[in-house]
Design brief:
2 domains; HIT family, subunit A; single chain; 12-stranded antiparallel β-sheet; alpha+beta; 7 helices; 3-stranded antiparallel β-sheet
């Protein structure tokens, strides 16, 4: 029987648009579920109870350290059981029906829930969330290198459903819906950053079977790591080598260069100078903000439109949907927040209408990249595609 889920009091963490309502619920095995209702939502406040009988959640995965690189690898065997390209009537991210016992009990606008088979979590660190000394000590310990080191994969993994529809992506949503998803990303960034032991929060969207997507449902994910990720560690090393203004100086240089795709009031999208992938675009705020939770209402309003234009332009480049990874790089939770600026980095292996870039030996084995398309050439093509986009 439907029940009135809790509409949480204002202000919510990370939320700046009071028209977006957050409603909390719980799935049958105890996982957290949050509904984010659009500003112009037509949904009633009542949401159904998840009445499924579910197996207990799998044990927390184990991290093992590669001593050659210092990287931590999460061994999450439960992920082997996840759904693979289901038909529409068995979509696990669609609202439940008598024939489809999915993860979402009710019709929704945007929904966020804990992953059933997470790579990180649901266990958290044993110290208090606001114990910054303990967080720093834990991070320092993980940065040391040794043989056969193990650690529990604490943290949190969440699924973000952009729509109840079976197919689509962020780029197929309305401006209003895009705005709701941005509020959800900001909310979850703020909430997850406050969890004990979380060192970095990463919202992202994988799009297309060529990327390895197993669900066509429009959705993304959020990973909350117990360490600072290798990509961000390399960024921190570059900041140490260059100076604290590195990311601001890159943006200034790109805005005055030939690879700008969109130059709006608050955001600029550009093809980076040393792009690795055939399609690679960075979208960066003009004001220094470390993560989505610290963007303003005006920045989010513009982001909804700019991001939709960018994604639809990428799709218009070849006339058919383009596979991509859209990665929101945010500052670590506990350090370098004055130096690491929020950025969206969108990459695609598509190098022609009917060709993909596969990582060869140089890239996959040695990390020595070879670009197939000059960044300036790709920027010119993307600009032309984006100019034809209508919202």
């Amino acid at each position: 029987m439907p029940h009135d889920t809790t509409a949480t009091p204002s202000p919510e963490p990370g939320i700046v648009d009071p028209r977006v309502t957050v409603r909390r619920s719980t799935l049958a095995d105890g996982r957290e579920l949050l509904y984010f209702d659009d500003a112009d939502s037509t949904l009633p406040p009542e949401r159904a109870v998840d009445a499924r009988v579910l197996d207990p959640r799998p044990p927390v995965a184990e991290m093992r350290q590669d001593p050659l690189t210092g990287d931590w690898v999460s061994i999450a065997a439960a992920r082997q059981n996840r759904v693979f390209l289901p038909p529409a009537n068995l979509d696990p991210l669609a609202p439940q029906t008598p024939e489809n016992p999915s993860e979402l009990p009710s019709l929704y606008d945007v929904a966020v829930f804990e992953n059933r088979s997470p790579s990180f979590g649901p266990d958290l660190a044993g110290f208090a969330a606001d114990d910054t000394d303990a967080a720093a000590s834990a991070l320092a310990e993980l940065r040391t290198v040794g043989l056969e080191r193990r650690s529990p994969s604490i943290g949190r993994c969440e699924v973000v459903c952009f729509s109840p529809e079976h197919e689509g992506s962020f780029g197929t949503q309305t401006v209003s819906r895009a705005r709701t998803v941005i509020e959800a990303w900001a909310h979850r960034t703020a909430a997850l950053s406050a969890l004990p032991g979380v060192q970095q929060v990463f919202p992202f969207e994988n799009r297309g079977q060529e990327i390895g997507v197993t669900l066509p449902h429009p959705h993304g994910q959020i990973y909350s790591y117990p360490y600072v990720t290798p990509r961000t560690e390399r960024l921190l090393a570059s900041i140490d080598a260059y100076g604290p203004t590195l990311m601001a100086d890159i943006l200034d240089s790109e805005r005055n260069g030939p690879r700008v795709l969109i130059d709006a009031e608050h955001w600029t999208a550009y093809v980076p100078f040393a792009a690795r992938w055939p399609i690679e675009v960075h979208l960066v705020p003009h004001r220094h903000v470390p993560d989505l939770a610290e963007t303003t209402a005006e920045e989010r309003e513009e982001l909804a439109r700019v991001y939709l234009r960018l994604l639809r332009g990428v799709d218009a480049l070849y006339g058919t949907p383009t596979p991509y990874i859209a990665a929101w790089h945010q500052a670590p939770v506990h350090e370098r927040r004055d130096e690491v600026r929020l950025s969206l980095q969108l990459t695609s292996p598509r190098r022609a209408a009917d060709r993909l870039k596969y990582l060869a030996g140089s890239e996959a084995a040695m990390g020595a990249w070879i670009g197939d398309v000059p960044p300036e050439t790709q920027a010119e093509a993307l600009r032309a595609a984006i100019e034809g986009v209508q919202l």
